[in-house]
Amino acid sequence: MATSFLQIDNLTKSYGDRMLFDGVTFGVYEGDKIGVIAKNGTGKSTLLNIIAGIESADSGDVTFRNGLKVGILEQTPRFAPGSSIMDACLLGDNAMCHAIAEYETALLSGDNDRLNEAIHDMDAASAWDYEDKMKQLLGQLNLHDITASTDNLSGGQAKRVALARVILGEPDLIILDEPTNHLDIEIIEWLENYLTRSRVTLLMVTHDRYFLDRVCNKIIEIDRQQIFTYEGNYDYYLRRRQERIDAITSEMAKVKNTLRKEQEWMRRQPQARAGKAKYRIDAFYDLKKRSHVDLSDDNVELNVKSSYIGSKIFEARGINKRFGDKVILDDFNYTFARYEKLGIIGHNGAGKSTFIKMLQGIVPADSGEWNVGETVRFGYYSQEGIEFDDNKRVIDAITEIAEDIVVNGDVRYTPMQFLTHFLFSPTDQQKYIHTLSGGERARLHLAAVLMRSPNFLILDEPTNDLDIMTLGILEDYLAKFKGCLIVVSHDRFFLDSIVDHLFVFEGDGAIKDFPGGYTDYRTWLNAQPKPQAEAEKQAAKTVRERPRRSSDNRMSYKEMREFEALTDEIEKLNTEKAALDAVFNSGEVVDDIIEKSARYEEIKALLDEKEMRWLELSEKDQ
């Protein structure tokens, strides 16, 4: 029987007269990888916050197994002001953390005595393995400067540091709130692979459907203040959820049919009911109560059509852009076609957002020309969001943009009517903007963009704060959108659903135009020969006996001699490295510690280089 890690019993939470969930009960067991799904505003993050101890419930109990180590990744990570990446990853106030921090400082100081003392403290605290693990993990997350201040990190960098901090804590259970937000696709796939292989137990909220499908083995849905549990991944959940809805709909049809008959009986004169069993009257009221269950889904209504767009969209001629030594665009030329749907992907900081801002004239090019068609009407959903006045009400913010909203050429809405299509009830429209959740802000932003009936939509990371249901509606709308579209997104499912081709920002101003969606691109990429750097990562760190292979790819005489020499050189380097390890671990004072440390780093680099070449030659037959 699986070990219970966490038990939730009769948990209830409300805000004022708005009930989020009522009497929720479920368990988390060792090996569970659970995804929590619900519409925005129905309590997903609140549920995680209550479990994590950040918020309190109105009633109910949260019970962890004794001694359970829990790691928490918040949606917006927070670090101590002035701390470095290394500080953020050194968990706790203990001898090991102090030893590592002092060792890193001593390395930079050039003080020989201080470094010797720091090495002694590292030995005493058994801190070498943790430091190596920390640096390796941060390197995999593309965080190479561990002395960088957390005060200056981008959203994506902060999320990666927080991820490293959680993983390094080696928790039994990890609670993740939107772990993929602000991460580029490469890191999302790294995290996906790590969590799939890891035996750690997970409880998370995410809107990334591929992530849910590939990582989770259980889905919990919050729906109408109750929870429903599905043993399987996201694809299984979709099938079983539809079966559940179909069964409830069928049952409700039977209830209403029976209710009509009982209603006729109840309407008769009291004499006609005289002597009848009281249970039938009670059953009638029970049926009436059951028939009032609302099975309708409140969804965003995106029924706004684009305005007319001509055949000329935009041409880019010789566009160049750089920030110092960093090249964003290098002699970029492109002619955008009518009704084209383009996805943009690439590493964080590669220039994706800068590109779309340049197209709209928000950021100037260093040289070159953008030639935009006269009929083009941009609608820009920015990653930063619209700068609404937080002290204004929702209805006032939209009214300031337009008091009379005309869509589809002749359909007129008042701001109040238009906002109801984006799930803002009359009560919600009176909320102050600073009280809105991330999902509500995203819907308000989307309403402000679409109320102008744009014919060229530019969406910069639109999926970050939208729930899965709203994302599905947005995808359907964009697939049928009779206009042009550019979308920057890390959501692979979203890209696969709507784009015709991709711009892959490869860095240093290089842009690859790939025909197809993200899955097509990933399949193509996996079929390409691995770059040398990847082969180096896969190389064994110790010399192994060369395997026999049957192939026509034979070594030349020169290569055979090189292979033999490499074997001897690698053995000597490993011997020298072991000798230095013994010196460093001896605890004795080393006079030339700085020179020996430099030589140690040089040996590691030489071993990486020679082992990679040894592995390359070992693939050939003698």
UniProtKB/TrEMBL annotation:
Q: What segment(s) does the record annotate as region Disordered?
A: 529-553
Q: State the family it belongs to.
A: Belongs to the ABC transporter superfamily. ABCF family. Translational throttle EttA subfamily.
Q: Which GO terms describe its biological process?
A: regulation of translation; translation
Membrane-crossing segments per the record: none
**What keywords would UniProt list here?**
ATP-binding, Cytoplasm, Hydrolase, Nucleotide-binding, Protein biosynthesis, Repeat, RNA-binding, rRNA-binding, Translation regulation, tRNA-binding
The record's listing under SUPFAM superfamilies reads: P-loop containing nucleoside triphosphate hydrolases
Q: Which species does this protein come from?
A: Muribaculum gordoncarteri
Matching PANTHER family, A to Z? Answer: ABC TRANSPORTER ATP-BINDING SUBUNIT, ABC TRANSPORTER DOMAIN-CONTAINING PROTEIN
Which InterPro entries does the record associate with it?
Answer: AAA+_ATPase, ABC_tran_C, ABC_tran_Xtn, ABC_transporter-like_ATP-bd, ABC_transporter-like_CS, ABCF_ATPase, P-loop_NTPase, Val-tRNA_synth_C_sf
Repeat as UniProt keyword: yes
| Domain ABC transporter: residue ranges | 6-249, 314-533
Positions with biased composition (Basic and acidic residues): 533-553
Protein name stated in the entry: ABC transporter ATP-binding protein
Entry's Gene Ontology molecular function annotations? ATP binding; ATP hydrolysis activity; DNA binding; rRNA binding; tRNA binding
